[in-house]
Amino acid sequence: METKQFKAESKRLLEMMIHSIYTHKEIFLRELISNASDAIDKLYFKSLTDDKVGLNKDDFAIWISADKDSRILKISDNGIGMTAEELENNLGTIANSGSLKFKTENKLEEDNQIIGQFGVGFYSAFMVAKKVTVISKAYGSDKAYQWESEGVDGYTITEADKKNAGTEIILELLDDTDDEQYTDFLDQYRIKGLIKKYSDYIRFPVKMEVTHSRPKEVPEEEKDENKAPEYEEYIEIETLNSMVPLWKKSKSELKEEDYKHFYVEKFYDYNEPLRYAHVKNEGTAAYNALLYIPSKAPFDFYSKEYEKGLQLYSNGVLIMDKCGDLLPDYFSFVKGLVDSEDLSLNISREMLQHDRQLKVIAKSIEKTITSELKKMLKNEREKYEEFWKAFGLQLKYGIYSDYGMNKEKLQDLLMFTSSNENKLVTLDEYVTGMREEQKFIYYATGESAARIEQLPQTELVKENGFEILYLTDNIDEFAVKTLMKYKDKEFKSVSADDLGLENNEKKEEIKAKEEENSDMLKAMSDALDGKVSKVILSQRLKSHPVCLTSEGSISLEMEKVLNSMPGDQKVKAQRVLELNPEHAVFEKLRELNASGDNDKLGKYANLLYNQALLIEGLSVENPVEFSNLICDLM
Ligand code: ADP
Predict the structure, then answer these.
(1) Cβ of 545 below 6 Å from ligand 1
(2) CA of 37 to the centre of ligand 1 (A)
(3) pLDDT tens readout for residues 477-521
(4) 253 and 353 inside one domain
(5) Residue at 499 is within a domain
(6) What is the pLDDT of residue 429?
(7) Is residue 372 part of a domain?
């Protein structure tokens, strides 16, 4: 008989399981029972439309048996079963090996996180068993097969005998050690406790033969009051789980822990959710839903691999694992499930997309999520900021995408870093804190708050005591431009030509100065040879000699973002070089101009332009020329 090797990643995982220091070894039972339940789900689903299955809902069950003498724990189901090929593919490899590789190469996370995050449930059996045997017969097949393994050395698959479709998992438990009493897992009370704890909501009965004892019946004439009663054992088949799905229970009988526990188990997230909502909706779209806001973004959240969606049940039967149509893209982080009695069971994926009922449910769910987020923002600020750090980007994309169609809905959920103490503020908070004389919502862009703080363009706005929003994500300025206004206040970049701060006197003064120096400004602009559309005198600069701004609809930041995207079309912002007329450098320029040294004036113009580029976080166009220029002037 040929012994097959596990695929590399599976082997690695298996090793981790075997040498696991994971304290919750008990979860193996939950994993195996969930698998059994999923397998039954599949066959039950088939039975609804296919009479050949020959089983009724009540016939489906998961059986547990434990034998202390042989140290064998058995979990059996009459679900869909596995063919030889499926045994090979499902138990010899890990479906999600790509993601596992990602994780393990990036430092071994705590093993319990890995257990939770990937489809590694079955392997957890090796945390408690020295030998695992799986006997399975696929529905519709006339042959059964046996998969057997004692760990990393590999596994065998042979033909086996089994009457009905389904799967039997046989664990030969490890010997007890000082730290771990594996024998406990054979104890009926322990097993009952574990089922209640982890698998109570499993929709099919988990049954076990439970041994009870009772006082022995004694015939009347033999009764003796002085003798202690004798007991006898008897066996009873018990269903260990209540089978009512959590979401169908009444809210009053559930505690916060129940919801959180359910989330951690069901959605393989080791981190507790930030918030949950249990929705019971009556009326046109009657449904129950459990919605969760995770606290951390999954590692693949901002990649193409991430698939949004909620589990969809029709009256307790799972019909789709990730129904994407239930969530708008901007709420793609939400996890949870929806159960509706009004959905047809044998509806195809394609039909589902057009299902009117589903659309109504999706709308209602979106409303719930929005209101839950608003409640969190209002009542649990710290949590909301945690949420924002994990998923804020997604909401900002939501503002920008679909031509701003959803901006009204989302704008009150936004947060930006403020120039006031670098803390996060909402737009509402910003507007509420605006000075009476302040006309605009000011923002500045850059790669980090620290970087933006250094920008010369922020000087005038700050001097007026106005708050500035620091936009540090690529999407931010696009989102702000999509919003255009918030509560009738227009957004204004600190680089904009009209900041609305200029007092008229000053304006006139600058204008006069510009006219006075027009030949110098023209000479500088000529020397810059198309790099800027004009050189002007600035009102916004206080301590810095120069800065770069832009006119027209494309800002410097947008130019950076757009040009970093794939594609050949490059855009260019129309740059404006602003000079600070109060700065000593300005006097120097005037002197040069007066002396008629146009060559040197041109060099100064180039030097200042490059300096402005650097401050702006843009790269110097020609570093060699720049460095030569400096030496030249030194
Ligand atoms: P996951 O359940 O997360 O997919 P597992 O390692 O627990 O990962 O199981 C791998 C696969 O093996 C399952 O997806 C399923 O296809 C199959 N499987 C496991 N247990 C059973 C079972 N009792 N009956 C039928 N198929 C099963």
Answers:
(1) no
(2) 10
(3) 999 999 999 999 999 999 887 788 767 788 889 999 999 999 999
(4) yes
(5) no
(6) 97
(7) yes
Which pLDDT score, from 0 to 100, does residue 616 have?
83
CB distance 167 to ligand 1 below 6 Å: yes
Say whether both 528 and 569 belong to one domain. yes
**Residue 337 DSSP symbol:** E
- CA-nearest residue for atom 23, ligand 1, is 36
The pLDDT, as a whole number, for residue 7 is 80
Tokens representing residue 36 in the block: 């059994």
Q: What is the pTM of this model?
A: 0.68
* Domain total in the chain: 4
**120 pocket-lining for ligand 1 (C-beta < 6 Å):** yes
Answer yes or no: do 605 and 569 share one domain: yes
> What token pair was written down for 291?
């919605």
At residue 259, what are phi and psi to the nearest 5 degrees?
A: -65, -45
Protein residue closest via CA to atom 15 of ligand 1: 90
Orientation of helix 504-516 relative to helix 518-527, angle to 10°: 70
**Dihedrals phi, psi of 17, to nearest 5 degrees:** -65, -45
Rounded-to-integer distance, Cα 146 and Cα 132, Å: 10
Q: Which of 14, 74, 94, 122 to mutate to test the pocket of ligand 1 (most atoms within 8 A of CB)?
A: 122
Query: If you measure from the C-alpha of residue 35 to the centroid of ligand 1, how many angstroms do you get, rounded to a whole number?
Result: 5
Domain membership of residue 39 as a residue range: 8-217+227-239
- Ligand 1 in reach of 40 Cβ (< 6 A): no
534-537/468-471 β-pairing: unpaired
Q: Give the position, in ligand 1's atom list, of the atom nearest the Cα of 80.
A: 25
Please tell me whether residues 337 and 466 are part of one structural domain.
no
Distance between Cα 30 and ligand 1 center (Å): 12
Same domain assignment for residues 85 and 162: yes
Residues 267 and 296: beta-carbon distance below 8 Å: no
Residue 36 CB–ligand 1 contact under 6 Å: yes
Residue 392 lies in a domain: no
Position 396 in a domain: no
Domain co-membership, 89 together with 175: yes
Task: Report which ligand 1 atom has the smallest distance to the Cα of 79.
Answer: 24
Instruction: State how far the Cα of 306 lies from the Cα of 209, in Å rounded to an integer.
Output: 43
Same domain, 235 and 363: no
* Statement to judge: residues 199 and 289 lie in one domain: no
